[in-house]
Amino acid sequence: MSRDYDTWFVTGCSTGFGRSLAEHLLDTGHRVAVTARDTGRISDLSERGDALILPLDVTDPGSVQAAVERAEEHFGGIDVLVNNAGIGYFAAVEESEEAAVRRLFEVNFHGVSRTIHAVLPGMRRRGKGFIVNLTSIGGLAGFTAVGYYSATKFAVEGLSESLRHEVEPLGINVMLVEPSAFRTAWAGSSQESPIVIDDYDATAGAARRAYHASVGRQAGDPDRAARAVVAAVHSPRPPLHLLLGNEAYDTAMAKLSALRAEFEAWESTTHAADFPESGGQA
């Protein structure tokens, strides 16, 4: 195992991806700051390896700063940050409640931003680091009933791409992990709008029902995903976009094909929007 990225800080370790990732890291000799809002749900991991169990609420700036400082003090620095903590929300766009949408962005986008801001000073001082942001295939393509959830993931994608340009010259890498449906608690624990508009029953309504029916039957294996993420971080040339799952790959490739076809169909209109090359106005 490469020792370049030995010490990890992982958010949202109670269940799902975060739990699987923390277990795999500890089992393979990494040092891990294992975090969750309720540390009682992760306390058993302290017996598994070199784990530092920390309380963390990504919506609380003081909690984020305190957890990062404690991890840096304990381990001497953080090599890899994994932003995994997140929540879901099922509703058509028109059915969505403003308070729930704001909460969604507070956790899924601002929570990611807070941890990035907290770890970057230490990574810059050491001249190395790796930031891994878990988004979703819903961060590359929109789906019915999760419009605002996808919006939070699209936002993290844009932030991460810009961040990579800024920090790569400083020795810091950034990677987006974009899974499709995995056998985690996400679908079963996601909030859902009580507002139901009949006109959306065949689209968002059908998607809501499908999400509920998928619980425990999703194709993706969180343990395999954890191994894939760690292998990608330690690889000689880590990707910016790491798709996980057959559905993620198929969806992403279909989106690429659709974008290319649309861009090419409207190419002449696109070019005609600039001033003529002579500099004059048409």
TrEMBL record:
Q: Which residues form the Ketoreductase domain?
A: 6-180
Membrane-spanning intervals of the chain:
130-151
Keywords of this entry: Membrane, Oxidoreductase, Transmembrane, Transmembrane helix
Among its keywords, does the record have ATP-binding?
no
**Record InterPro entries:** KR_dom, NAD(P)-bd_dom_sf, Sc_DH/Rdtase_CS, SDR_fam, SDR_oxidoreductase
* One Pfam family named in its UniProt record: adh_short
Which family is annotated? Belongs to the short-chain dehydrogenases/reductases (SDR) family.
Q: Write the protein's name.
A: SDR family NAD(P)-dependent oxidoreductase
